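Q: Sequence in, structure out?
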Amino acid sequence: MTTPRTAAALIALASLFAGPSCAETPPTRPAPTATAPAPAAPGAPAQLEIDGAHAVWRLSDRVLSGSVPEGDAAFAALASLGVRTVLSVDGARPDLDAMRRHGLRSIHLPVGYDGIERARAVEIVRAVEESPGPVYVHCHHGRHRGPTAAAIALIAVEGWSAERAVAQMRAIGTSSQYVGLYDVVARFDAPTARERATARSAPLPAVAAVPPMAAAMVGIDHGKSNLDDVRAADWGVPSNHPDVDPAHEALKLRELFVELGRSDGVADEPLAFRRRLGDAARAAGELEAALRAGDRDAAERAHAAIDAACRGCHAAFRDVPTD
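A: Exactly. Output:
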């Protein structure tokens, strides 16, 4: 049975089954927004601002990193920056239709928060080396797993030192709590010729298989992100997500926690994991009730309880390197 600590590792070992499938057709784009402040020196990493994505950095001429692109404007902006390949290390399914519309290739190589297995790291390097143009590497939020994958590629392909790559991760905002991510970059050596040959034995997937536990966590992460926006909007409808119904969003999050608790294998998980899952489900129910009653103080307490349950679970089961 899958344990919480191994769920992320299983993502990294997900089977490769689909070759590159996005058509290389000329993009049709709405006028995209993609701007960059002047870098400190020619070729220096620079933060960019584009519609539909955040935490976007041009790290080199061939590697960019950031959050998941959302909507046609984001993909059009990436294409306008010269990006030819979108490399997702997130667990969510890539938006293949949008990428096809803008002439972008999809490569999907999910990784966890506890580190990146060597075989998956070599695949990430291969994806950047073999892509005909700049590669946009992204996770969900653009601050942790994506910058780590980009750092690995920069060490192997651009000759960055581990020290420089780690410093760039810190500049982007990769949290120090993800010790496994920092560790893999600090210790990374470029792949050998044999490793590269082994990686080339299978096609890079446009969409990768994701284990059920990891898929559930993707939904929870997205739901919690929406509720963070609701909180930032003083417990109202967030301007960046006008379709979000705050109370219903809390209900959906509670259902995700409850369904995960009922899923196959969870009964075999450590008691601490199951308790935190139950705590999170109860807190999400309390948040729903508070939002329906218009009780902002109760909503704050419930939101804090969800955060505490998630942080405790992540610290114990997700953020640390696996053996």
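The domain at 212-317 is CATH 1.20.120 (Four Helix Bundle (Hemerythrin (Met), subunit A)).
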